[in-house]
Amino acid sequence: MLVTVIIPTFNRAALVTRAIKSVLIRTGDAALDVLVVDDGSVDETASVVADVMTHHPEVRYLYQENAGVSAARSAGLQHLLPQTSFVTFLDSDDVLSEGRLDADLPCFTSNPALDLTYARMSIVSQIDNETLLPTPDAQVTNVVGIHLSCGIFRRELVERIGLFNPELRQSEDTDYLLRIFESGSKFQQTDTLAFYYVRHHQNMTLDRKEAGRYFARALLLSVMRRRKDPSLVLDKPSFELKQLQEIEAD
């Protein structure tokens, strides 16, 4: 069972190798394909990823002209390998947690009808770049958040749901998850810690007003879809429909 981890990135040469490293050393027994989608970076992203690829043939690099994170994630879905069975996502400034794939992939073996697993996440203020764990003085908040990286998705599911909404510069992952949970997909919520969401000054979601507008738009689109098609029912894991800034402020 090959798992493709899609890592979209833009001008994060200083961070993307940490994200890739966290996947490579914490994969366990899973067969792995790491696809880095470069959304038009003008820094050293291409060269630092190329350095990793010389030692890790399971890492691939895809460049596109800058078109936004929705287009980058969609490009990743459009370049899955023929043998890919499962898909997950990791942002280039975040860190995969240890044992994440080994913990949740067996759920699909025990339940062949399962479309996805959905795990917890940890919002942290600092990560040790050597241990890839929160530093001793880091602020840590563990939550069941609405975030794409919490899910492992069967390939057939993402092919059925389709691509990301290119009109959403933010909360495109919220929109995608809501489309999944409206579709009648079969999911299993697990206690696994999926990843560390690392706060830093470059986070797109630091602009709370703009993030709030896109988040509200994603929620409105969900309501509009369900009004148009009453057969759509939002059956989701026990996360609250809150953007990350609201969780951090609680």
From TrEMBL:
Keyword Phosphoprotein (UniProt): no
Molecular function GO labels: transferase activity
Domain of life: Bacteria
Residue ranges that the Swiss-Prot or TrEMBL entry lists as coiled coil: none
Keyword rRNA-binding: no
Record protein name field: Glycosyl transferase family 2
CDD domains (UniProt xref): Glyco_tranf_GTA_type
Keywords: Transferase
InterPro entries named among the record's database cross-references: Glyco_trans_2-like, Glycosyltransf_2, Nucleotide-diphossugar_trans
Organism: Orrella marina
UniProt domain Glycosyltransferase 2-like: residue ranges: 4-105
